[in-house]
Design goal:
elongated, mainly alpha
Length: 153
């Protein structure tokens, strides 16, 4: 159940952040209005942590950093993927299914992709495209889990 919870949480965090950049995928500074960032953070329970972490006000770069890369924020993408890995490792120890290697590789690859990114590199590489790739990888992991546990084969 926790694997599903953290998969869903990561996908929702990607979607919530990506909605703002659908119209302006290349210009992060054009969407730097403080009320939007405030309400976005309030909607994912990250407003107080943001105020404690970043004292300079609302900046798009800092919001991206918190939602994607903050290991201490329970709704961040990296937090969810790390927990996903943790619960999958626990599940892997309890069973002996051959497809664990494929799933382990997919989760590890995604975790490395996010862990070794910075807010500046994510923004410079096109934030919208980065978030789409993360979401596609999360869906691939969910589909592999579905095939492993719920498909009749």
């Amino acid at each position: 159940m926790n694997i599903g919870k953290f998969l869903e949480r990561a996908i929702l965090s990607v979607d919530i952040l990506d909605v703002r950049f659908l119209n302006n995928p290349n210009d992060i500074d054009a969407v730097a209005d403080a009320p939007y960032w405030k309400y976005l953070l309030l909607s994912i329970a990250g407003y107080e942590l943001y105020l404690k972490t970043y004292r300079t006000g609302f900046e798009a770069r800092n919001v991206v950093e918190q939602i994607v890369l903050n290991n201490h924020f329970p709704r961040s993408i990296i937090y969810s993927i790390t927990r996903l890995q943790r619960y999958f490792d626990r599940l892997k120890q309890e069973g002996k299914i051959n497809s664990y290697q494929e799933l382990d590789f997919m989760i590890g690859k995604l975790l490395s992709k996010v862990r070794y990114s910075t807010a500046d590199t994510i923004i410079s590489q096109n934030l919208h495209q980065y978030l789409i790739e993360i979401k596609n990888d999360l869906y691939a992991i969910a589909n592999a889990l579905n095939q492993c546990y719920f498909a009749y084969s």
